[in-house]
Batch of 4 targets.
Target 1
Amino acid sequence: MNWITNYVRPRINSIFSRREVPENLWTKCDDCGTMLFHRELSDNQNVCTSCGHHMSITPRARFKALFDGGIFSEVAVPEPMADPLQFRDQKKYPERMKAAQKSTGERDAMLVATGEIGRTPIVAAAQDFSFMGGSMGMYVGNAIIAAAEEAVKLKRPLVLFSAAGGARMQEGILSLMQMPRSTVAIQMLKEAGLPYIVVLTHPTTGGVTASYAMLGDVQIAEPGALICFAGPRVIEQTIREKLPEGFQRAEYLLDHGMLDRVTPRTKLREELITIIRMLTGQTPAVWGDLPAPEAAAATPTSAT
Ligand SMILES: [Zn+2]
């Protein structure tokens, strides 16, 4: 690492490709206010190196850090009907979709992939909070069904990373229908005897918490994640009482029996490898013998 690779190259890249390198080379931590260099932050999976605050991470970046060698192949998700209610608020729904697709480079708020983690093949699905607040619409429902069907077909465990502001209001009742749809999809996994592990990330709320995000055989959360159905402000206004410190945060929910583990993002891969090996009846991992994640290999992702 020197001045040229750290400073000059990102600047040149930003002229040619806007999406790859953030315009601003520094990000301020929302929690402690430390200015973090973009490379240092992405190397640490968007976790503040100063205070450990977990910032949001895209599904693609997460999968690169999760799978062996950062290699995964995407699972195709059936396209739902576009704008079934012809919904319009300040903007038309298709316009909002287009803007979100342009800014994230993704089709919708969930990415499904297959790959190996510590040499155990799995299916993984991750929700994208940067895509319209990770909201659950028909596409997310289709993605969960595609993920569950792929897991059943290949007889693999499913790991799901949730992050959502709830259901997608632009799809009205159709978004709420994804709650029973995804619940049935998860039931398919249970009937096939396959492990379903949920990693709850900040924030997981609304209809997502009320369906597939709470149905895991093992429920893990990232530190500090807000996990709730109705948020603390709504509850406070309704019951007119001050809520306890840390209410509905991961650590509070762990203390109150809602979660099994709270695991920092940088330790998640190891933890998932251990749990998956346990649930699939394999011997404990020998760490030196397992492939490294993306950091060392820096392999580009493959797409189908
Ligand atoms: Zn910080």
Target 2
Amino acid sequence: MDLALRGTVAVVTGASKGIGLAITRALVAEGAFVVAGARSPGPELEELVRGGMVEAVSVDLSTADGPGELVAAATARGSLGVVVVNNVGAAHPRLTGFLDVTDEDWITTMNLNLLSAVRTIRAALPTMIAAGKGSIVTTSSVNSFLPDPTVIDYSASKAALTNFSKSLSKEMGPLGIRVNTVSPGPVSTALWLGDDGVAATVARAGGGDPAAVAEGVAKQSVTGRFTRPDEVADLVVFLASERAGNVTGSDFVIDGGLVTTL
Ligand SMILES: NC(=O)c1ccc[n+]([C@@H]2O[C@H](COP(=O)([O-])OP(=O)(O)OC[C@H]3O[C@@H](n4cnc5c(N)ncnc54)[C@H](OP(=O)(O)O)[C@@H]3O)[C@@H](O)[C@H]2O)c1
């Protein structure tokens, strides 16, 4: 299937690792140019930069100005992406309970998981509206509708992110801009499986083994495994393309059947 993304400039947040890196790769494979934001590019994103179809922007997207700086880098290329992928996010397990989650924890989570998307979209929309077209795809999470006290602030931030995206889709639809979310279950990235990832943090707290924690989580899906980042990327890139031209205001779950309800 030709996604007709050749010549498109896309903005991807949280692009140096994990799902964002896979989305960047997939967009480049479809012929798009990607302006890729993370605090530090890392070797894999740098390799993509050497391929000539990626500009890496070192930026803290949790700050008030960071998202605007990333979008400005795309605008400076002459044409802002009509594709914006809000992917950046982080989860910190709260294993000692809600009462230990401080205001600072909540604000940090909301800045990165919700406001980074709000600010990126705010910066990008004027050009998209002028173009009269575009696609915004945001990485939410199954936790947006599967609230979990061990990631209580993360769950709330993702619920807000999905809700925000749906509201925005209603305003932007008549202007030719589509707004969708994808909601992965556990994905095999550093967020879950890294040295400071969820599995290691949970294992440390319980004196267990990170691999056993991950295996237990994988078994909760009917496929028995984590989703791979490239599988999320394929879904995102389809939604980014005009092949999904009448898809807006929707949330797409990719979780190996973890969520068993309709
Ligand atoms: N993995 C999962 O199981 C899973 C499930 C559902 C949803 N998600 C969502 O998917 C998205 C990506 O997650 P992932 O698993 O790919 O995470 P990841 O492997 O930890 O990668 C996160 C990316 O975001 C960047 N980043 C983090 N903080 C940043 C900041 N303040 N400013 C700029 N960039 C920042 C990181 O680069 P730097 O560290 O260099 O900044 C990295 O490129 C997140 O929104 C997450 O909530 C993940």
Target 3
Amino acid sequence: MLVLEYKVKGKKHQYDAINEAIRTTQFIRNKAIRYWMDAPKEAKVNKIALNNYSTALRKKFKFVEELNSMACQSATERAWLAIDRFYQNCKKKVSGKKGYPRFQKDNRSVEYKTSGWSLNQVKRRITFTDKKGIGEVKLLGKWDIQTYPVKQIKRVRLLKKADGYYCQFCIDTDVKFESRIDDGEIGLDVGLEFFYSDSNGNHEENPRFLRKAEKAIKHAQRQIYKKEKGKNQRRKARQRYARKHLKVSRQRKEHALELARNVCKANALVAYEDLNVKGMVKNHCLAKSINDASWSLFRRWLEYFAAKFNSQVVAVNPRMTSQKCSDCGTIVKKSLSTRSHKCECGCELQRDVNAAINILNLAKARVGHTRSNSSGVGITTLVGVNLLEQILTVNEESPDFTTK
Ligand SMILES: [Zn+2]
């Protein structure tokens, strides 16, 4: 699945129409969640039931009916994703919050599938043909959407970002396998000092732009509160802040993508810690160095490129990986500030490198098993919709849009 993104250029009334479609999507999604919440226990509300519910909503509300029927389905599918995630978390007995579906207030996108739009055959333009009145808009970008057969375009998504409107096309290209340059095996450990350390003894530096941007963003954020509420200046300050944020999330994405690509290109087996990133960020000491967003992005791109290079990505339970000697298995206790691993067996390594080797060893020991098992090792697979959803969430990142 390939995602092409264009900036949308249209008139004010067209942007208003996009906003309206986005609002309708949110309405349907939230209605579907409510429908699920209110349903009696014995009525099993599943994806299909929610789909049928979207048809019912269309009959009831004119503004829902105006949105393309498949776009309405996409909206209930979003509700289903949230519900299903909750079910999965309950099933897996995830500790802490299970992510009970919540009502969304900040939706920023509407998703069409294979109908409700048509491409201009010559120019880079798209027309939305449902009754929301978006009409024909220009697409600004360097790719030629026309080169892909329309049949391969599975989804068209309109997004509102801090600096305007965007249109994404999800194209179903057969996964093109690229050939790896090497068949290495690598373990990755997230540390305090580095973005990650690997089992070969390399350390990947934390991207400097994040530190720099952090300052700029904080400054921009403070400016908002200095301006009077409801005033134009405040609105502008808010926009400046949002734009800065958007810029960083793009840089972050580029960084994660590039790293993940290189790792998968050179390795047949990639092992990483299955960290509860949420839990980690609560720890303030770690939060500064490890940017949770960067790391989870990196993981997603690892999975993406693993599919592309036909590499295997394995998530490993990180328990004891930093304490255990990677050579002899003895537990060598160390505090967070101890930066090296010294074992009686003579093994001396940088702390994170030792952990990375342990991570790789754990993965190798279990790689024979397919799928996940109770000991916390999972082999991530990526196909179809999941991948699409992942890429979309990656692309969507913006300050007041939390992807769940
Ligand atoms: Zn040892």
Target 4
Amino acid sequence: MRILVLLLMSAQFMVVPLGVAHAQRSVPIVRDAEIEALVSEYARPILKAAGLSRSGIQIVLVNDPGFNAFVAGRRIFVNTGALMASETPNEIIGVIAHEAGHIAGGHQERLRQQLERAQTMAVVAALLGIGAGIAGAAANADGMAQAGAGLAIGGSEMARRGLLGYQRGEEMTADRSALTYLQATGQSAKGMLTTFERFASSMALAGVNVDPYQISHPMPRERIANLETLARQSPYFDRKDPAELQLRHDLMRAKIAAYTDGPSGAARLFRNDPRGMPALYGDAISTLLYGNPRTAIEKADRLIAAMPGNAYFHELRGDALIKANRAVEAADAYAKAIRLDKSRSGLLQVGYGQALLATGKPDLVRKAAAEMQAGLSREPEFANGYRYLAQAYGQIGDIASAELATAEGHYQAGQYQDAKIFAARAQMKFKRGSPGWLRAQDIIELKTPKRR
Ligand SMILES: [Zn+2]
């Protein structure tokens, strides 16, 4: 059910496929401008308080209904299930604060070093036990030798054990650190308590529906009692999330429900407020996914009339227009979304490029290539984007760039053999020493690109 998002052409909420050899198995990373912007906003002040602002900590969204969040290397993974189950921003912020506590405390340092330079998708594949081949292929690569070897030895088992292996003392440290960060940012620890209490009580049901989070972060009762005493001492304990943030949180939950819980998923989640914006947003997305695109356009129009400044309503409208084969209008909708998007998401820019590409008009296809190239320079790990970039280059007859884009897509997906093959083909067509030639050389030598 949840893999059906693969069928969507747009960049919105895309689950990244692992490639032909693994056609049946997807690395379930969710790429979505709205969710990424919101969760990054949740994390930013916490990471700053933790002294991690300059550590390049990356938030990765995993398409999984279970409640989980975990750290691997310098990435914090958050399940869509956790986002949907958390009724307030504060609950997720609390979880992020706890995970930041693990990073700042230097827990799992060895694992972190090994994962430091691997591609996000290779890490996720390894963690989920679907990437042994990928990791093995990286083993002879310069710079990735460590990561590849680390993941390849016993495959994911080692990585998984590392993730599940917090010491009791480390949990207490992470809790204390989380309280400090929340205090420093003027936020309540109540949400963190709510989440932990939920786990403690479901744990009492002896293994029924055990969420992965409580396996990796054991929650004995006394730890929570301890935490509550400390949390209540904070002057911010009763402070609520700003209403505007709560609305964005609920819009995000409605989107996840629409994508992962079937046509009436969002309606069920917001059954107590069926006329509210989250329910209407979920309904419009459900119509886009499961219904008539014309009706989805009308619903998007109504959402935009109510909140004209919401970038993602315009993005939704763009998606619906593409599905209705109105690519020129879709491109306009995307252009509006980009103007309104404060997070300057490269994903939206790739989506804009896809709409331009879909018009099939030579001058717009040329613009599509430029827009997607620019978007991908900000989101280099967005493997799917390179497929459309390659298509755009192919249509304007720039075969060298098309092959380089294909190589880049394979590279970012962790498919290193295919990446090298296409890079070699591209290189033969580029002028020696030109930027394209040099990038192809990097891929042939499997050099890790510089991070943003
Ligand atoms: Zn923990």
